[in-house]
Sequence to fold (69 residues):
Amino acid sequence: MNEAKTTSAPSPSTQGDPMLLNTDEYIKIVKGIKTQIRDAQYRAVLGANSEMIKLYWGIGNIINEQCVC
Fold:
C-alpha cells in the first residue's frame, strides 16, 4: 500500500517566534514606528500650510499690483 505522507507548515505556536506581541521590546518598536508616522504627518501638514501661505501671498500681491487705489 502506498501511504502518501502529508506535511503541513508548523503552527505559529510551534515555530518558536522570538517576537512576542506582549514583550517590552516589541512595544518599544511599535511606539517608535508610531512616532515616526506622526512626525512625518506633522511635517507634511507644515509643508502644505507653508505652500498655501506662499500661494495666498502671491495672489494678494497680484491683486495689490492691479489695485488703482
Notes: Residues 34 and 40 are 10 Å apart (CA to CA). The chain has one helix and no strands.
